[in-house]
TrEMBL record, chains A, B:
This is XshC-Cox1 family protein. Coiled coil: none annotated. Residues 11-78, 118-178 form the XdhC- CoxI domain. InterPro entries: MoCofactor_Util/Proc, XdhC_CoxI, XdhC_Rossmann_dom. Pfam families: XdhC_C (PF13478), XdhC_CoxI (PF02625). It comes from the Bacteria. PANTHER family: ALDEHYDE OXIDOREDUCTASE MOLYBDENUM COFACTOR ASSEMBLY PROTEIN (PTHR30388), MOLYBDENUM COFACTOR INSERTION CHAPERONE PAOD (PTHR30388:SF4).
Length: 365, 365
């Protein structure tokens, strides 16, 4: 949708109603991901795309209908084998679209959302797609404020809290609720669409543990890069699909790449020659989390070298070493869970204690 | 290998040397998983299989060679497109085999391992496949004892500790070490082969969170089953491949299925009508972990009903509710990490506190 938002905002600002179709879910391999959008505006002008071409005709008519009726529709399209071939798929697939009319009356926050996206300010937009709540109703969640309503206060409160979680990860997808926001019910389906890049996870050291940490990083929504100076270990074959694998000296790679205050950095190298210059670079950069693996002895030795390198107390205090929560983790997967748990706890201020042993809210509101 | 172990043990007991080929790793889709084995014994008798047929000829010769030379070999076979077609693959693949001679002198624990497997007693066998350690050397790890050596005490200690982790999960795969067991080095490759079924994770309630909990359960090595009474939610499509999805009343399904002291049970249903009878059943059964999701209010209400149902204090104390560690988790993936972290901490006795705030050993030895 990001690509066509300037055109949509032009129509919106001019007060012209338009029909907006958004991919809200897909099954098996579909040509476009959730969030892809197509719109039909004045004079039947079409922008964007929701498939490789095969369902656009039907969507065009649906978009006209929703504008005429002022009522949103939810439609699922399956690809026949022939269609699948036409859009370059070999195994079929299915996409579900929400098609809704957009006007200033129905969607008062649309202009503000478009401006945020244009200015690269992160925002998550929640839209009701199904169930006993007004279909097409939207709620926009920024880090510091909320606009709109999904129909009930309970639903607004629950979705706002969850949208903040997805916003931090730049994640997009469906969530289910009860009519008043009950988290373990399924009656109401809400599409959470985040306009923010996913945060980065940088894993240094292509050891056994790195593959497990990379997998759980991807599971949590990170865009993962693994970097190691040794070409025999830093091979894409050893890592899950979608993980970027870089052969370079860790501190040199980190010096040349971008990090921001959401980036997590996991140092799994095992050699002061790699990890001391790497941590010197990391501790002076924006990052949400900087963790380094190693025994207590490695940690003490590393801290000594880092102190000698002139890092300040405040810079050194950012280092989580030894990395992870104390779970007694043994296998690479268990260690990866302990690292992921520490990253989540640091993000939201959790203590790591069992919830059975604490009181108060289970997650921040 | 389990299938051919009785034959191998016959040869071993009779003092006849044989050549044993074991799949230690595969890439892309390969016909057999790590642990599959083929052996060549007296009079060139062949048992077992390591592929769909295409590399068995070469393995036959290798097995004869290793018996003649008394030296283990590591060999990788790639499938050409033609071979791949022959074994029913469409995209090629690669398998790596360790081929080693087995005699009483080279492998004194072989008979004891075979007896354990026959008696369904869990054991993990570690074998050096590559690097500066004696190729083919084995170490067998039972819950209560260890036999054999991989060449250095440091390597034996590290591999024993890790094998206990894999043993608890019935997991099989390669791990890498330094020559003296250094965990973050890669020089020595060791194949850990567990003869134990993977533990079960039972997830009740096919809500959004269930898919995330099922994924992280599979990541940790569990054989995952999701059960819900509602056929529209309990569909395989909503869950990752490999997860069993059952439509049944939770307490009825649990009443009819097997659990053991490694089983983890996650109750994500949202209705006392489902979860009270389910937890009554769960809390009276063998299980490593029984967790139930819900707000503090749901928890209080549930505990009241469970107490009324006549469960003892000891039975009730097994319930982890609200489920998970206090990470402030928001997204389904974050909640799943908090549940996984609690499961691991309970398994090995971890506190959940950050390792930066604790002293002493990072994982149990």
């Amino acid at each position: 949708m990001r690509d066509i938002l300037p055109v949509l905002n032009g129509w919106y600002s001019a007060g012209v109603p338009f029909g907006l179709a958004t991919v809200v879910s897909t099954s098996r391999s579909a040509p476009r991901d959730p969030g892809a959008a197509m719109a039909v505006g004045p004079d039947d002008e079409v922008v964007g795309s929701v498939s490789g071409g095969c369902v656009e005709g039907a969507v065009f008519e649906l978009a006209q209908e929703v504008v005429a009726s002022d009522e949103a529709r939810l439609e699922t399209f399956g690809y026949s084998d022939e269609d699948a071939f036409a859009v370059g798929l070999t195994c079929g697939g299915e996409i579900t679209l929400l098609v809704r009319p957009v006007t200033a009356a129905l969607d008062p926050a649309f202009g503000e959302i478009a401006e945020s996206v244009a200015a690269a300010r992160p925002v998550t937009v929640a839209t009701v797609t199904d169930g006993p709540a007004p279909r097409g109703a939207t709620l926009a969640v920024w880090p510091d404020r909320v606009t709109g309503t999904l129909g009930t206060t309970g639903l607004d409160v629950a979705v706002t809290a969850d949208a903040r979680g997805e916003l931090a990860l730049g994640a997009t997808g469906l969530r289910h609720y009860g009519p008043h926001g009950e988290r373990r019910e399924d009656a109401v389906t809400v599409f959470l669409h985040s306009f923010a890049p996913p945060p980065r996870m940088l894993v240094f050291g292509a050891i056994d543990y790195a593959a497990a940490v990379a997998r759980i990083g991807a599971f949590l929504g990170y865009r993962v890069t693994v970097c190691d100076a040794r070409p025999v270990f830093a091979t894409p074959k050893r890592f899950p699909e979608g993980v970027e694998v870089v052969v370079d000296w860790p501190h040199r790679y980190l010096g040349d790449t971008d990090t921001d205050e959401r980036t997590v950095i996991c140092v799994l190298t095992h050699d002061p020659k790699f990890d001391v210059p790497l941590l010197e670079e990391a501790l002076r950069r924006p990052a949400a989390y900087i963790g380094a693996m190693g025994s207590r002895r490695t940690h003490d030795d590393r801290m000594k070298r880092l102190t000698e390198s002139g890092l300040s107390e405040a810079e050194l205090s950012r280092l989580r070493s030894p990395v992870g929560l104390d779970l007694g983790a043994r296998t690479p997967e268990e260690v990866a869970v302990s690292v992921a748990a520490e990253i989540v706890a640091l993000r939201w201020g959790g203590s790591g204690a069992p919830l059975t042993a604490t009181a108060g809210a289970i997650h921040p509101s």
